[in-house]
Amino acid sequence: MCIGEVAHVSAGITYTSKHSVEVQVNVMSENILTGTKKLTNKATLWYVPLSLKNVDKVLEVPPVVYSRQEQEEEGRKRYEAQKLERMETKWRNGDIVQPVLNPEPNTVSYSQSSLIHLVGPSDCTLHGFVHGGVTMKLMDEVAGIVAARHCKTNIVTASVDAINFHDKIRKGCVITISGRMTFTSNKSMEIEVLVDADPVVDNSQKRYRAASAFFTYVSLSQEGKPLPVPQLVCALRTPVSKAAPNISGLDAEFYHTQAHP
Ligand SMILES: CC(C)(COP(=O)(O)OP(=O)(O)OC[C@H]1O[C@@H](n2cnc3c(N)ncnc32)[C@H](O)[C@@H]1OP(=O)(O)O)[C@@H](O)C(=O)NCCC(=O)NCCS
């Protein structure tokens, strides 16, 4: 979408499970000078209702009424696929992005980046927890920095694989959003982003992984055309991946690429 265009955002419920709601969001951009409209973004978001009295209690969802029988069947397939993918994300949930001194260009360490943010009242819902959109924006920002450092060109987000919010983030937490390149193809790159929350003023709680996702970015020429991406260079070092502790000698930086070609 370009500066000066008008965004039309529409959303609707497309599936309900016992405890979750799938919402499909479409963004149309309108050029008010020419009148042309086009679909620019599509996203599927899953919400889980929580009790107002106890934010740790998950509530049941009133089932949505489908206009066609197939809608429910298609929705169930998406729900099951999303649940399976989530299990995989949980399994990778232990990885930590470690800084490296004097990294070589085009290695994972060269472009890996982090942002640290103090969660203030304007980041939060009425109940004092961070808005999902605030976290998503910071995650996209870090992924964009990683992509730009790697390519040194103008870059754009092409897509985001399920952002999983593993745990709530409370007002007053310090969050660290870390990103690293996990895969390069000819004209796109995959960046893993992890969000860790540190309840600094609450000694009873330790730092925890709050969210994670994979972003796909594309490098663009000055004319806005996709460019070839510099390929990741393998830098051999001791694996840091907790998710793959026994892969001795294998570059942990390439762990994701190897595990998910
Ligand atoms: C989402 C959350 C409430 C789930 O809690 P939980 O203890 O894992 O709950 P359960 O395992 O009982 O799952 C409850 C429902 O949520 C669904 N669910 C859980 N995590 C999900 C995810 N990442 N994506 C989609 N659905 C999810 C489950 O499928 C289940 O629905 P079902 O019974 O119909 O299958 C919890 O992980 C949380 O609070 N996360 C942080 C949320 C947040 O801060 N979001 C950003 C601000 S809005």
UniProtKB/TrEMBL annotation:
<keyword id="KW-0719">Serine esterase</keyword>
<dbReference type="Pfam" id="PF03061">
    <property type="entry name" value="4HBT"/>
</dbReference>
<feature type="domain" description="HotDog ACOT-type">
    <location>
        <begin position="1"/>
        <end position="53"/>
    </location>
</feature>
<dbReference type="InterPro" id="IPR033120">
    <property type="entry name" value="HOTDOG_ACOT"/>
</dbReference>
<dbReference type="GO" id="GO:0016790">
    <property type="term" value="F:thiolester hydrolase activity"/>
</dbReference>
<protein>
    <submittedName>
        <fullName>Acyl-CoA thioesterase 7</fullName>
    </submittedName>
</protein>
<feature type="domain" description="HotDog ACOT-type">
    <location>
        <begin position="109"/>
        <end position="223"/>
    </location>
</feature>
<keyword id="KW-0378">Hydrolase</keyword>
<dbReference type="InterPro" id="IPR040170">
    <property type="entry name" value="Cytosol_ACT"/>
</dbReference>
<dbReference type="InterPro" id="IPR006683">
    <property type="entry name" value="Thioestr_dom"/>
</dbReference>
<dbReference type="InterPro" id="IPR029069">
    <property type="entry name" value="HotDog_dom_sf"/>
</dbReference>
<dbReference type="GO" id="GO:0052689">
    <property type="term" value="F:carboxylic ester hydrolase activity"/>
</dbReference>
